[in-house]
Design brief:
The chain is of the alpha+beta class and 265 residues long. The protein folds into 2 domains: 3-122, no CATH class; 161-264, Immunoglobulins (Immunoglobulin-like, Sandwich), CATH 2.60.40.10. It has helices spanning 3-19, 21-28, 32-54, 61-86, 92-115, 125-152; strands at 161-166, 177-178, 184-193, 198-206, 209-218, 223-230, 239-245, 248-255. A 5-stranded mixed sheet has the order 2-8-7-4-5, with no helix packed on it. A 3-stranded antiparallel sheet has the order 1-3-6, with no helix packed on it. Strand 4 and strand 5 form a beta hairpin. Helix 3 packs parallel to helix 5, helix 3 (32-54) runs antiparallel to helix 6 and helix 4 crosses helix 6. The longest helix has 28 residues, at 125-152. The termini are far apart. Mean pLDDT is 78; it is low at 19-30.
């Protein structure tokens, strides 16, 4: 394939990939395989232009198609890296514009080389390209159909859960908490999903002692904040403080006022 035709082919595929939002919408509505095919065309064409620009001499078809395919595949991350370094958002349109610039620059270099009398690409290349791109397109199509079928397969429902966590200032507790004689009001947060609404038993334990218990209504799909009062431990020893809601719980450690006895610690 001559260089001008190769450039035109790459540009036509780039246009089809969606350099314009309207054209992308027309081609892509319900036809994602079109974009896969056009992407293969762009990358193979860019790879061949890389090869013609860097090594204009003829070479065996198998070697040439392998090098062209590798060069084409490298073009995509190359453009993404350049966009990232330039501070440009990596989007479909910016990637397409970057590939268009790569094709334009490489095409100009190749045309100058050919005008200067350098040998053109291997004339056997189109057949080698077809031998690689046709299986590649079939693989892409098969993969797309497989993924589509997987997405439509029935799946078991997600297991339900109830989560209980320290909230507000209590979420920053990273060590034993000094609790005054009047006790402390602890903020908490509860979330529920995949389970029906229910009144779960809310219990507060200081060490092995149950200090309070009541029912708390919990609804699915709702995150609720609430408070519990934790009394001061009986002494200044370290005590495990557990707040549980049904089968889920949260734990921290606390000490009573410093003036209380600690002989048994």
């Amino acid at each position: 394939m001559t260089t001008p035709r190769l450039i035109l082919l790459a540009c036509a595929a780039l246009i089809g990939l969606g350099l314009g939002d309207e054209l992308a919408g027309v081609l892509g509505a319900g036809r994602p395989w079109v974009f896969a095919a056009l992407c293969v065309v762009v990358l193979v064409a860019a790879g061949e232009l890389w090869l013609r620009a860097l090594a204009g001499e003829a070479m065996p078809p198998v070697l040439r198609i392998g090098l062209a395919t590798a060069a084409g595949l490298v073009s995509l991350p190359f453009v993404a890296i350049v966009l990232h370094v330039a501070g440009v958002g990596i989007r479909a349109r910016s990637i397409g514009a970057g590939l268009a610039l790569v094709v334009t620059v490489l095409g100009a270099i190749v045309l100058l080389r050919e005008r200067a009398g350098r040998p053109p690409g291997d004339p056997r290349l189109p057949g080698a390209i077809a031998a690689v791109t046709i299986p590649a397109l079939l693989a892409v199509l098969t993969g797309f159909l497989t993924l589509s079928a997987y997405d439509r397969m029935p799946r078991p429902p997600e297991p339900g859960y109830t989560s209980l966590a320290l909230n507000g200032w209590a979420g920053d507790i990273d060590g034993p908490l000094s609790i005054p004689a009047r006790g402390v009001v602890v903020p908490l947060r509860v979330s529920r999903a995949g389970l029906p609404a229910a009144a779960e038993p809310l219990r507060v334990r200081v060490g092995a002692r149950l200090v309070s218990g009541r029912a708390l209504a919990v609804e699915p799909g709702v995150t609720r904040a609430f408070f519990v009062h934790v009394p001061a431990p009986p002494d200044s020893c370290l005590h495990r403080i557990e707040i549980s809601l049904g089968v889920t719980s949260t734990v921290f450690y606390g000490r009573g006022p410093a003036g209380r006895g600690s002989a048994g610690c």
